[in-house]
Amino acid sequence: MLEFAILGLLHESPMHGYELRKELAAKLGSIRAAISYGTLYPTLRRLQSAGYITEADETPPTTAEVPVLTSKRGRVVYKITAEGKERFADLIAQAGPETYDDAGFGIHFAFFARTDQATRLRILEGRRRKVEERRESMRDVLARAGERLDAYTLELQRHGLDACEREVRWLEELIVNERSGRAPEPRSAGSGTAETSPHVQDERP
Amino acid sequence: MLEFAILGLLHESPMHGYELRKELAAKLGSIRAAISYGTLYPTLRRLQSAGYITEADETPPTTAEVPVLTSKRGRVVYKITAEGKERFADLIAQAGPETYDDAGFGIHFAFFARTDQATRLRILEGRRRKVEERRESMRDVLARAGERLDAYTLELQRHGLDACEREVRWLEELIVNERSGRAPEPRSAGSGTAETSPHVQDERP
DNA sequence: TTGCGATGTATCGCGCCGATACATCGCTGC
DNA sequence: GCAGCGATGTATCGGCGCGATACATCGCAA
């Protein structure tokens, strides 16, 4: 899953680890906490040895040869390879059941701008189905659990049920929009949100 | 974290693994998916060798000695020990920072009926603080990210921000109730939810 | 000049997950 | 009468991801 996110980010521009983590935190802030280094660096290694990313020597060597003696060992910038782009596309296309849990869905959604409309629709509907199942199961618990559960547990279920219902409604909206070919409407999110046009689909480097 | 949940459940009555999983799914349905057996059984083992739980031979031996030859190896029922209850109380009292993330908070909340009021308040406030921080960080992203992020990512942030704001309001309500000494008000959750009175605090076996 | 916070790379132990295997029990259908 | 199927039930394995920790450099403020 993190593999997917990293490939997605490097798809936009080369980056080093620290930067990657910050961008990820910004892009996925609503889904998950910042990625741990204990995950990030091993994953980068794995991606590199799989050939999906390579080290890009940072400084364009023309500027100056000044700092030769300090061995530096500074930041390591990675960039995505052709195989990496292919892999990313595969991961989008496959979209198994793990794509519909909280984390998986969020990450896939965050890269919808690089996902074709049919797949977007498929993922949104899969997610909706999953959240609906969750909702039904919680309704059941709330219905037959008058005695069995204490007041706090019930309150927790109620709050969770509410969140599920909200998410389903949100997904419905997105699905309707998607079917009609529009990108998510800009809506009020500040004052002058720029015209982020659909701009879907930009494969090929 | 799962250690805490298992101890909490066994605190109520002895159970075998499968049952434990189902009860957990019902009690924590709003928080997390059902616990995996790959977690459950090793955890039970760990708890047992730490002395927090023991095997309880299921059948009261008086009923019948009929099935002797079939070696059976059927369900293994566990029950909590005195050390286990102590451990559970410790885990409630400590309530470190991991108590405030999504999973940790949910699990602790689910056992609020066994938690004293002061600790309940402390946990609710810690959680609120954490969600508020998350909310602020997402507001920042939304404010300065007109250009940097695409429409889908923005939509994701908006949905996440909304969820944060709701949770903060929910927590505020709970905190007010808690301060005034009331349990969460029954509210509309069916037709005749029975009088689940506060009934907080039942230590001592 | 000392010290601190941001930037930056890296490892280690371990909790937890999903897949998988396997065995028993009771039901329904042929 | 027995075949198959879904529920109940215990268990292991590989691997992802986390939190803690270590360490090194840079710029700035006290």
From TrEMBL, chains A, B:
SUPFAM superfamilies membership: Winged helix' DNA-binding domain (SSF46785)
- Biased composition of type Polar residues is found at 190-199
What region holds the Transcription regulator PadR N-terminal domain?
A: 6-89
What does the record give under GO molecular function? DNA binding
Q: Which domain of life is it from?
A: Bacteria
Q: Which InterPro entries match?
A: Metal_resp_DNA-bind_regulator (IPR052509), Tscrpt_reg_PadR_N (IPR005149), WH-like_DNA-bd_sf (IPR036388), WH_DNA-bd_sf (IPR036390)
**Protein name, per record:** DNA-binding transcriptional regulator, PadR family
